[in-house]
Write a structure and sequence with these properties.
By secondary structure, the protein is α/β, with parallel strands linked by helices. Helix content is 26%, strand content 34%. The strands form 2 sheets. Strands 8-7-6-9-10-12-11 form a 7-stranded mixed sheet, with helices on both faces. The protein has a 5-stranded antiparallel sheet with strand order 1-2-3-4-5, covered by helices on one side. The relative contact order is 0.14.
């Protein structure tokens, strides 16, 4: 298909988001990948029919998943694992933290990585950085091969639990994440859109809570999703969630946002019962 046309992101059988787009790329491998261009949103990256991010607002998601856990660490981070994150946005934000010495990234889909380097290079971090080790491997297997208590952060920038990402929402995965974290460290993972897909939190929250003694649900509004996205934020030690220890700011994030992130609506609280 050439030229502009209307494309619908299907949310439910009778509901979706529509974009007037030009098709830039389309291929089906481990995941069905589409890249569109829209006058308002810029380039859109789509996996299995679901918009993962757009050029216009990706920074909100990427700053939240990196800066929020960093803000709560007692000391600045030095070693980090990224699971997923093939677009390079998490890496970009981490590379703004001067104390980092080692970043290991496990990405299962080489096509996702290559396409993002081609079409979304403006939002990507620098993979030539000697501190960065990109490993093409399933994230669960990557964690199993990582040393115990070696990392300040485990950041899981993955899709919803379908296809290759299913293993990333299991008790076994959370156990490995806990094992590789330092006692003060943080685990964070996107947990989809509770208003549309409540089953993801309902099914995964009991599993992560079996492993980590302290688990918080984080909320964040990203415009292209049309709703607030949730994250699991977990740690092995009690934290002062509303009062950051590392005072960092970005294009979206600043320390005053922490109370918002943790203030959940009643509809979300009901899912945790």
């Amino acid at each position: 298909m050439t030229g502009s046309f209307w494309w619908r992101e299907k949310i439910f059988k009778d509901f979706g988001h529509s974009y007037k787009v030009e098709l830039v790329f389309e291929e089906k491998g481990l995941q069905e990948i589409q890249i569109f261009k829209n006058p308002s949103w810029g380039y859109l990256f789509v996996l299995d029919g679901i918009v993962q991010f757009t050029e216009k607002d990706e920074f909100i998601y990427h700053e939240t998943i990196t800066y929020l856990p960093i803000s709560l660490l007692p000391t600045p981070p030095e070693e980090v694992i990224i699971v997923g994150g093939g677009d390079g946005g998490v890496l970009r934000e981490l590379q703004k933290i001067p104390t980092l010495k080692k970043i290991i990234q496990f990405e299962i889909d080489t096509l996702v990585f290559d396409l993002c380097q081609k079409y979304f290079f403006k939002i990507s971090g620098d993979y030539a950085d000697p501190r960065v080790n990109l490993v093409i491997k399933d994230g669960y297997l990557g964690l199993k091969e990582s040393p115990s208590e070696g990392f300040d952060l485990v950041i899981v920038d993955c899709t919803d639990p379908v296809g290759p990402a299913k293993t990333l929402y299991t008790v076994e995965f959370y156990q490995e994440a806990s094992r590789v974290l330092k006692p003060h460290g943080f685990f964070i993972q996107q947990a989809s859109l509770p208003i549309y897909f409540p089953h993801i939190i309902k099914e995964a929250y009991p599993k992560i809570s079996q492993v980590f003694p302290y688990v918080k649900i984080v909320r964040c509004y990203v415009p292209c999703y049309g709703e607030e996205i949730a994250f699991f934020l977990a740690t092995k030690e009690p934290k002062d969630w509303f009062n950051p220890k590392q005072l960092i700011s970005g294009k979206y994030y600043h320390p005053g946002l922490n109370p918002y992130y943790f203030s959940l609506p009643q509809t979300w609280l009901e899912l945790l019962k």
